[in-house]
Amino acid sequence: MTYYNEMYEGSQVRDPYARLSQWVETMPADFRQMKQAEAEALFRRIGITFAVYGEGGDPDRLIPFDMMPRVFEQAEWRKLERGIKQRARALNAFLRDVYGRAEIVRAGRIPARLVYQNEAYEKAVVGVVPPRGVYSHIIGIDLVRTAKDQFYVLEDNCRTPSGVSYMLENREIMMRMFPGLFRGNRIEPVDQYPDLLRRTLESVAPAKCHDRPTCVVLTPGHFNSAYYEHSFLANLMGVELVEGQDLFVDGEFVYMRTTQGPKRVDVIYRRIDDPFLDPLCFRPDSMLGVPGLMDVYRSGGVSICSAPGAGVADDKAIYTFVPEMVRFYLGEEPLLQNVQTWTLWKDDDYKYVMENLADLVVKEVHGSGGYGMLVGPKSTKDEIEAFRAKIQADPGNYIAQPTLALSTCPTFVAEGLAPRHVDLRPYCLCGDRIELVPGGLTRVALREGSLVVNSSQGGGVKDTWVLSE
């Protein structure tokens, strides 16, 4: 299979990478190794780690960081930005609809059972319209590239997409280590993201809020794999990082315990899953949430970002219908295309997939993090047959996609530069306006030949540049 190399066309360096090529060529190997060690030391000192649960031992790992940036021209980014914003509008329109009149279901465009029997669909918020009609406030859209002008959406993340701290810290560390690179290149900044995030949260404060809204970040606590990001964003936004025990409900509002006494909270940027938000509404054994929170939310006393139930929009079975959402709600043609997808609850799709497992990528509908999937061309016969049995037991729990020719980006390895497969997660903020910073999180599959970029599966990260005009 041939892969699009984002830096090279044959032996010629593409224009966006011209200066980086000179930088690499003039960098001695011992200097590069010293800088790589410096980057790792900075990440460790700052505390940027992630956890892989269920593997025993110390769960905190240092995420691999590659010093070779990924570069987009301004025209490429503008095209992506338009498509991302369009998709974000459609996803929020879908959420408003399915928690209301469900016109798209009535019209027969999406099967009712995929919505109402979906474990992410929350009956507790049917009929509740959050401020500005926004349900998903931070949308991470995973994109892959297969050719110069061909980008595809791999999946949508409408609940609590993680990784934005890596986007910001990758840039900070690169600027600290190689200031000359930034003086010699016209690179769009990303450091305004925390300000835009806070402005987005404040813009969706409930109508009952009269002063400047008080926002908080709600975390499950320091044992969570993304705890660093929770504290990092709270600090950069200048808001409090709280756990469920720090909040309580009194009457129509939510309050935060402080040393000066209770303080009313207007907007909660939650980083805990729906089932744990409120033990009186969801899981009664949850120790992470706030008893009575959902009553206040439903009565308009507090905003929760993203809204409970937003996850129904990013289910992998629902994903196949997003282009139809764009047409149905916006009356437009999708600017970003989905990857061709077979849904195994359809008989014809099931038959095709079972006959071609060795050539396809099969994913659990509710899976994430690179788990619960089969990459056919990279799997043994025994692995394929074991996965076949799982599919036969519950076909509706899986979708399948072709093995994409993901683009490659030059990445530093022991011998120098080598092509490695990448994807991109931009973060789209939805409030009184829809906006995103120029860039995102580029994840890279560091293992040679691997197509799985998730950090839990051996992937790393790199800085993403969008060049100014």
TrEMBL record:
InterPro entries: ATP-dep_Glu-Cys_Ligase-2, CP_ATPgrasp_2, UCP005522
Domain Circularly permuted ATP-grasp type: 69-445
Protein name, as recorded: Circularly permuted ATP-grasp type 2 domain-containing protein
Gene3D superfamilies attached to this UniProt entry: 3.30.1490.270, 3.40.50.11290
Lineage: Bacteria, Pseudomonadati, Pseudomonadota, Alphaproteobacteria, Rhodobacterales
